[in-house]
Structure formats: C-alpha cells, structure tokens
Design a protein that fits this description.
The protein contains three helices and no strands. The protein is an all-alpha fold.
Length: 76
C-alpha cells in the first residue's frame, strides 16, 4: 500500500513539473492571476520537482522508521 502511494506521488509530481515546464497551465494562470513569464514557470517547476524529491526521501525515512520500530518491538 505504501509503495503504491509512493509511486503515485512521484508520477503526479513528474506530471505537475512537466505541465508547468511546458506552459500548459499558463492560460489558466493568466485567467485568474497576473500574466507570468517563462522564468517564473521554470522556477516553479524546478522548486516543485525539488520538493517532491525531498518529500519522497522523507516518506522513505518515515517508512523505514516505522518498520524499524515494528521490528524492534516485535513479540519474541
């Protein structure tokens, strides 16, 4: 279950980064916000990708800690 969520999160993150980089979201953003330039799109996509990577690492560390806790406290 955890691995499925982990993979889905990275797929969504990759799609969101690609979507931002290609500028597909620019018309939607221009409709509701001030027009944004391409450097802002690239910066947002880059920061988003970095945050998804760090979130994935944190998720792995949390899973490792949970498994270690279960392993240490297992019944003998």
């Amino acid at each position: 279950m955890y691995s499925i969520l982990f993979v889905l999160k990275f797929i969504v993150g990759a799609f969101a980064s690609y979507w931002a980089i290609t500028g597909l979201c620019q018309p939607l953003l221009n409709k509701y916000f001030r027009p944004i330039s391409s450097p802002e799109l690239y910066l947002g996509a880059g920061l988003g990708a970095i945050l998804f990577v760090y979130a994935g690492i944190a998720w792995l560390l949390i899973l490792f800690a949970l498994y270690a806790y279960k392993y240490i406290n297992r019944k003998k």
